[in-house]
Amino acid sequence: MNPKPSTNRMARGAAMVLLPLLWLTLAWAKQASAAEVVAPAHVQQGALVYARVPSGSRVSYEGRSLNVTDYGTVVFGIGRDAKGVARLHVTPPGQAEQVVTVEIRPRDWPIERVNGVPPKTVSPPPDIARRIAREQKKVTAARADSNQGLGFAEHFIWPVRGRISGRFGNQRVYNGTPGSAHSGMDIAVRTGTPVKAPASGTVVLAEPDMYLTGGTVLIDHGYGVGSNFLHLSKLDVAVGDSVAQGDIIGEVGATGRATGPHLHWGMTWFSTRIDPLLVLQRGD
């Protein structure tokens, strides 16, 4: 278990949160009065969507109530296969409900063929399948709730820098057998490369040896937004740890279902998988 973060480290993390929030507030203030809702006109599949609503509003998306920050920020995710429009239901204090629509623009999803992975990870025998199911329940439980930390509002940074060897959403074929769509972004770097937290948050899962994902860390960035880091060779955090943007959380490896050293970085909004690359581009 890591020691508790120092006061300076926590202050640095707080500053990283407040500066982007101030930027968002000032930018939105130029676009709308406090009584208006500001949301993008269109987004891509796999996007993490930020919107501004009057403080104190009641907001829902696809039947889920969304928490609103003191600054009037809400965030929600658009799935890989979402189509048409996203409808955000907003009821400002003392006003009637407004329905804000955001057009969802489709993307092309190429096929990625991954060869040389252990056969048991493609078609696992019953005992291994049961283990995988147990481990997946842990992951699902870790994503079910989220605190009100403000890391989600930071401009995310790359956890490692390297060649993108796998992209979010692409259809995977393992050893010739079709699999599910890729749930994150793979970054090819050498084993032992330090992995940084892309934004501040709380560690909600830290497992050194999961069958498919190997060394696995999940961070809750707040308001339903989370990151997962897979195939790690070493973990430097434990469940309950608070991390600031840029803190080292582990090292790159090739554990679990992997053919070589790389970091799989996935992002989610609760159970909805989103594209980390789109989140990074928001800060460009």
List keywords for this structure.
20 strands, Glucose Permease (Domain IIA), 10-stranded antiparallel β-sheet, Immunoglobulin-like, alpha+beta, 284 residues
Structure description:
This protein is of the alpha+beta class. The chain folds into two domains: 32-105, Immunoglobulins (Immunoglobulin-like, Sandwich), CATH 2.60.40.10; 111-282, Glucose Permease (Domain IIA). The protein contains four helices and 20 strands. The strands form four sheets. Strands 9, 12, 13, 14, 15, 16, 17, 18, 19 and 20 form a ten-stranded antiparallel beta sheet that branches. A five-stranded mixed beta sheet has the order 1-7-6-3-4, with no helix packed on it.
Summarize it.
With 284 residues, the protein is of the alpha+beta class. Helices cover 19% and strands 38% of the residues.
Secondary structure topology:
Elements: H1 7-31, E1 42-44, E2 48-52, E3 58-61, E4 64-66, E5 73-77, E6 85-91, E7 98-105, E8 111-114, H2 119-122, H3 126-144, E9 163-166, E10 171-174, E11 177-181, E12 184-188, E13 194-196, E14 201-210, E15 214-222, E16 225-235, E17 242-243, E18 248-252, E19 263-269, E20 272-274, H4 276-282
Parallel strand pairs: 1-7, 8-10
Antiparallel strand pairs: 2-5, 3-4, 3-6, 6-7, 9-12, 10-11, 12-19, 13-18, 14-15, 14-17, 15-16, 16-18, 16-19, 19-20
